[in-house]
């Protein structure tokens, strides 16, 4: 039972549950901005004996064409480092600007700039804040599941990641996101 719980916890750490709404866009229709705008986002959760982690990251995008959409996202992350005595709570926040291009079918490319203000515990009583700016590039796929939901997987490479840096906002230059997105907004 403990093994199943740990596997489920690992999947939850790697997953990002989101809500997204997209509508068909006619390339010749300059029309309604509401038909071209989509909202969504992600939620990340992880709980263990060493730390608790909660991440909320809403996005808003605009479909310029049926294949190309720029957008903006915001990030808030809360971490409780329980392995420190007393435990230390940190709060990270930031934003990203992205461009997504559908290459073929479910495959897409994504480029994004991210700014993240990251709080790092340096002792059990002290934290320090760091600003991280990064350019990330990668791709992924989106597979519809029913009318208003779908599965996605994405890998982004952080070109500003420094393995020799004392503090990093991420533990690797690779940022992996896997999850399910669904349209929860019926009309705008």
Key structural traits:
188 residues; mainly beta; disordered C terminus
What's the gist of this structure?
Helices cover 9% and strands 57% of the residues. With 188 residues, the chain is mostly beta strands.
Describe this structure in words.
It is a single chain. The chain has 188 residues and is mainly beta. It has helices spanning 2-14, 33-36, and strands spanning 18-19, 37-47, 51-62, 68-81, 88-104, 107-121, 127-144, 149-158, 174-182. Mean pLDDT is 80; it is low at 1-25 and 183-188. The protein is 9% helix and 57% strand. It has one domain (2-182).
Write the layout of secondary structure elements.
Layout (H helix, E strand, L loop, with lengths): L1 H13 L3 E2 L13 H4 E11 L3 E12 L5 E14 L6 E17 L2 E15 L5 E18 L4 E10 L15 E9 L6
Parallel strand pairs: 1-9
Antiparallel strand pairs: 2-3, 3-4, 4-5, 5-6, 6-7, 7-8, 8-9
Biggest beta sheet attributes: 9 strands, mixed
Name the average pLDDT: 80
Quaternary class = single chain
Helices and strands, in order, run as: HEHEEEEEEEE
- State the distance separating the first and last CA atoms: 44 Å
Instruction: Indicate the proportion of strand residues.
Output: over 45%
Secondary structure class reads mainly beta
**Gross morphology:** elongated
Number of helices: 2
Q: Quickly count the domains.
A: 1
* Spatial sequence of strands, sheet with the most strands: 1-9-8-7-6-5-4-3-2
What proportion of the residues is helical, as a percent range? under 10%
Our Rg estimate from Cα atoms comes to 18 Å
Low-confidence stretches: 1-25, 183-188
